[in-house]
Amino acid sequence: MGIVSRVLLFGFMVFGVIYGAPQIGGRGPKQPPPGGFPPIPPEIRQVLPSDTVTQLEAIHNDPNLDFMQKQQKIDQIMSSLPPETLDKIPPPPGFYNLPADVQQKLKDIQRNRTMTFEQKQQQTQQIIQSLPENLRRMLGPMGGGPPPRARMPPRAALYN
User: Fold this and answer.
1) Range of 14's domain?
2) Residue 32: which region, alpha, beta or left (left: phi > 0; alpha: psi -120 to 50)?
3) What single-letter DSSP state applies at residue 160?
4) Which pTM value belongs to this model?
5) Total domain count for the chain?
């Protein structure tokens, strides 16, 4: 599950996902039980309104929803958040290595409120697959390469 599920989990804002510990030598987040759903990463939990966290946790813990249903419901909630909240969600490793126009295209897809979750994922994958191999590899498993080394931008850039 790892990075891929987190990217799906939060779309791109998710490109809103950081999976830093495994890339810089740490053990990484606790893995969910088989058939479980990964927990909300702390760096994302910190920037979301408490009612949104409560809604997301309810979805994560709902045994009546399958993985894809959870992804869709989470996407609906995340898509309804205001842009200033979405801007605070840290992107996944490798994102800042992409050209600015690609970063913007991916943001636009994930923030599009008229597209379904499946359409967003399809368009995101089309863009990623159209990138040169060296850029795809920087995105780790999502782009077909190994997990990238953590390269954090200046803290202020995370909130712009």
Assistant:
1) 2-159
2) beta
3) -
4) 0.63
5) 1
